[in-house]
Specification:
The protein is 5% helix and 47% strand. By secondary structure, it is mainly beta. The chain has one domain. It has a 7-stranded antiparallel sheet. A hairpin with a 2-residue loop joins strand 3 and strand 4. The longest helix has 5 residues.
Amino acid sequence: MVSGASLAGKRGEGQGRRAAGSNSRRRSDERIDRHKDGSIKAGRYIINEVLTKYCEWFRKDGSNLHSGYFQNGEQVGEWTPYNGKGKIVKVTKMKYPL
């Protein structure tokens, strides 16, 4: 599982990256959202302003809130909510769009 800290990667927190090709219109960003106290709130991947790939949300104390996958802005695959102690509550399998 990817952690919020590893989502930031070597490019630095909150920095985006442009997809390969100088004339590419496809915009790919890795976004790190923060709580007001500076702790990581969410780590998300966005392509052309649409959520995609693996995403995670965190509580202010750093524990996982929930995590899952997006495809073209829709929840797909396994989604996992966590309780206040960071333990898995359940895993829900979302259907893939047709």
